Amino acid sequence: MIVLDNHLLINQGKTRACYLHPGDKDLVIKVPVGSKKADNRSNITELRGYQALMREQVDLFCISHCYGFVTTSLGKGLVCDCIRDDGGAVSRTIWDIIIYQDDCDVDHIKAVADAFCRFLIQRDTRLFDLNLKNIVLKLHKDGVYAPFAVDLKGRFDNKETIPVSSYSRYFARKKMDRRRRQLLERIFLFREKRVEWQ
Ligand SMILES: Nc1ncnc2c1ncn2[C@@H]1O[C@H](COP(=O)(O)OP(=O)(O)O)[C@@H](O)[C@H]1O
Ligand SMILES: [Mg+2]
Questions:
Q1: Residues 6 or more apart in contact with residue 72 via CB below 8 angstroms
Q2: 190 pLDDT above the threshold of 70
Q3: From the CA of 14, how far away is ligand 2's center (Å)?
Q4: pLDDT greater than 90 at residue 136
């Protein structure tokens, strides 16, 4: 069993906490938190989304890949790639950068996010959860950011009564384009109001 404790914690989302793998610096382990703690549904949905992506896409370099389940001291965890900057630090989400980093090039971040979404749409890569906390930016030595999707559960967690965008290419593209526009708007909006969120 893998023992996870607070010094390994990277961050927490609505349904899962993300820990560094104690035995491998290139991996993370996600464990359920909150009211859904017992059922591990987010991790199962993410693994399912990941497997669907792998069936459709070749060469998907811009996501955190998933490797299956392990038993931890905090319950069953999903093992995924840990995205790190060239300098070795764990890469941060767009949210963490625009809210907490004093000097940040918002135009560059917006351009990177826009290009990332367009690339995914063009390749029909169905990742609908493109929000500020689900994309991390890997900082390269030259100051350029490379985006990675770290939360892949959106495809099968899409809150549609009839999940058309999971199966129809047309609706999937439309939906992802809405998400793209929303993401870009939010980058500016939250940057402007960052003090309220710190
Ligand atoms: N592969 C990863 N590399 C680095 N940080 C990650 C990774 N996966 C998740 N995180 C961090 O953990 C947070 C929560 O993970 P996420 O998978 O989005 O959980 P949730 O299902 O609760 O939204 C993310 O917002 C991000 O800060
Ligand atoms: Mg998330």
A1: 1, 2, 3, 4, 19, 29, 31
A2: yes
A3: 7
A4: yes
Task: List pLDDT tens digits, range 54-82.
Answer: 998 767 899 999 999 999 999 999 999 99
- The pair of three-digit structure tokens given for residue 198, joined into one six-digit string: 């710190």
More confident residue, 39 or 142: 142
By alpha-carbon position, which residue is closest to atom 1 of ligand 1?
Answer: 82
* Predicted local distance difference test score (pLDDT) of residue 74: 94
Domain boundaries, the chain: 6-81, 92-197
Homologous superfamily of 6-81: Phosphorylase Kinase; domain 1 (3.30.200.20)
Q: Which of 151, 155, 157 to mutate to test the pocket of ligand 1 (most atoms within 8 A of CB)?
A: 151
Contact 90 CB / ligand 1 (< 6 Å): yes
Tens-place pLDDT, residues 74-113: 999 999 999 999 999 999 999 999 999 999 999 999 999 9
Nearest ligand for residue 135 CA: 1
